[in-house]
Design a protein that fits this description.
Elements: H1 13-17, E1 47-49, H2 59-77, H3 81-100, E2 107-111, H4 114-126, E3 133-138, H5 147-151, E4 180-185, H6 197-213, E5 217-223, H7 235-244, E6 249-255, H8 262-270, E7 274-278, E8 290-294, H9 296-300, H10 325-329, H11 337-354, H12 358-377, E9 382-384, E10 406-413, E11 416-417, H13 420-430, H14 444-451, E12 454-464, E13 469-476, H15 479-487, H16 495-518, H17 520-525
Parallel strand pairs: 1-12, 3-4, 3-5, 5-6, 6-7
Antiparallel strand pairs: 2-8, 7-8, 9-10, 10-11, 10-13, 12-13
């Protein structure tokens, strides 16, 4: 088994918050940001609409994580470090369960990220005695870029969350070639337009039944919702497939965006679906805080499973329930303190958001969403990407998770749709002070706009046609914005004033985007402009 150095709790909190994750958490010394454009320290000066990728930690969440770090230090001094860590991991799992599982009492497995959790799904399903597995992944472009790699049982990075060096793309120890296969079902056409729900449902059904006919067990991945706000396949199709294939099909609800209410998630668990979620997207906790929720009927089937040998580089015993002692015994004994602290920060955001009345939360999401849509539509060089209205049969029309909160759009320059590499430049320029890149004749207004830090979601490629790729920018609303409007007196004395401030920041973000597009050719040709 891999040996690890003891945990040093005396290092700065921001260093601990970036530990226990793969290369995506590394901080660029030149910018102080990770690969998601986030800081492990509060970044209040930045205008943030990036929650469908990741968000810098808030001051309140940072303080909550620091308080937990102090409790861990006290445990070290008292010689009770291992017991204190175990209790804190148990508490985190219990609080997640209380929010999303309620009286169902489903098991909660913590994971560094949603992608890591895909490996945990393999551990769980294979422990049931499954010999040949097909993962049917709905809309792989609409979920994590490495999900299909992990779902195939392969290393998706050159370094695991626990720091073990691995060969990216290689099969995990304990798995054999051909044991696991991934079949993808697209949700958009080659031009990037969303396919009709009926078309997606038919494709999913065909993929599931084809695999079962060939003697394979199937795990169907459900988008709830995707990176651009799509839900697929439909709830009716999921229910129909589960009814017709009760022993050969399991369902994994990919709610890693967590734009899904606690009622909706509880409904999925009640229907015996696994649920994957993170506290680092909509809930705006720091990046790399994932969890896999297992209903009791599925959890009972894990019983005395032993862990896959390759899992020891990714997971520690503390992340798994105590009821599986044999599985825990085969995992790393060094606790993932970074994961623990990130979940503590995320829970602070979750609890604050859930203190907002449902109707008020939905009203805020609708108001800001309408403002975003209006800002996109009034700009001829921005074109919204088609989606399907959110319609969950599990929830009422008043539920906050029926309100769109991700808004994707293509950008045109000189009548040409910009590609992913070009959108990535714009994304970075928005998140940087580029005032020094402006011409000497620039106005004070333009210089002020250029200096404004605007963090939006990372651009993504949603389709690849015959002639060109289709890539989009995304602006999203997170739980922290809703909580600020509801409670943050520092941003205004009334809800109306605080909401107006959000509108002003949104307007300023789009104004900076306008400035960048106006200067796009000059910025792109500047050899001093950082592209990486």
């Amino acid at each position: 088994m891999i040996q690890y150095e003891p945990v040093d709790l005396t290092v700065p909190l921001e260093q601990l918050l970036t530990s226990g994750g793969d290369s995506r958490l590394r901080i660029d010394p030149n910018t102080g940001l990770n690969g998601y454009g986030c800081s492990p320290q509060p970044r209040p000066s930045a205008i943030t609409f990036a929650s469908c990728t990741a968000t810098s930690i808030s001051a309140g969440a940072f303080a909550a994580a620091d308080a937990l770090r102090q409790r861990l230090v006290e445990g070290t001094v008292g010689g009770n470090f291992e017991a204190v860590v175990e209790l804190e991991f148990e508490r985190i799992r219990r609080e997640i369960s209380n929010i999303y599982c309620g009286e169902l009492g489903a098991e909660v497995i913590l994971a560094p990220s949603g992608t890591d959790a895909e490996l945990y799904v393999l551990e769980v399903v294979l422990s049931w005695g499954v010999e040949r597995l097909v993962n049917v992944v709905t809309g792989p472009r609409e979920t994590g870029k490495n999900v299909c790699i992990a779902a195939a049982g392969r290393h998706f990075d050159s370094r695991t969350a626990l720091g073990a060096a691995v060969s990216s793309g290689a099969l995990l120890d304990g798995l054999t070639e051909g044991q696991i296969r991934v079949e993808v079902v697209p949700v958009r056409d080659c031009a990037g337009a969303a396919l009709a729900s009926t078309t997606i449902d038919l494709s999913v059904t065909a993929a599931v039944e084809r695999a079962i006919e060939h003697g394979c067990h199937v795990v169907l991945h459900v988008l709830e919702p995707s990176k651009t706000g799509l839900l697929a396949p439909s709830h009716d199709t999921i229910a129909d497939l589960k009814q017709r294939h009760p022993t050969h099909l399991d369902v994994l609800v990919d709610a890693s965006q967590l734009r899904t209410s606690e009622h909706t998630i509880a409904t999925y668990l009640r229907e015996n679906c696994m649920v994957l979620l993170t506290g680092s997207k909509f809930m705006t906790g720091p990046p790399f805080a994932g969890a896999l929720l297992l209903p009791h009927e599925l959890a009972d089937r894990v019983r005395d499973a032993a862990p896959l040998p390759g899992l020891s580089g990714y997971s520690t015993y503390c992340e798994w329930p105590k009821r599986w002692p044999r599985l825990r015994a085969g995992l790393c004994r060094r606790p993932n303190i970074g994961l623990l602290l990130r979940w503590e920060a995320a829970l602070r955001e979750l609890q604050t958001f859930f203190a907002v009345p449902t109707t008020q939360a939905k009203s805020c999401l609708v108001a800001v969403g309408d403002a975003i849509v209006g800002s996109i539509k009034q700009r001829p060089n921005l074109r919204p990407i088609s989606t399907i209205p959110i319609c969950r049969s599990q929830t009422t029309g008043e539920a906050w998770d029926n309100a769109p909160s991700i808004f994707a759009f293509a950008i045109f320059h000189n009548q040409r749709c910009l590609e992913l590499s070009e959108l990535s430049r714009i994304y970075r320029w928005l998140n940087q002070d580029i005032s020094t890149k402006l011409p000497a004749t620039a106005s004070r207004t333009d210089l002020s706009l250029a200096a404004t830090l605007c963090h939006v979601a990372q651009p993504i490629q949603i389709a690849e046609g015959v002639a060109r790729e289709v890539a989009v920018m995304r602006v999203s609303i997170g739980a922290r914005l809703v909580s600020r409007v509801a409670f943050d007196q520092s941003r205004g004395s009334t809800t109306e004033v605080r909401l107006k401030r959000e509108f002003e920041e949104l307007t300023r973000m789009f104004a900076k985007l306008d400035l960048i597009l106006r200067l796009f050719d000059d910025l792109s040709s500047d050899p001093a402009q950082p592209y990486n």
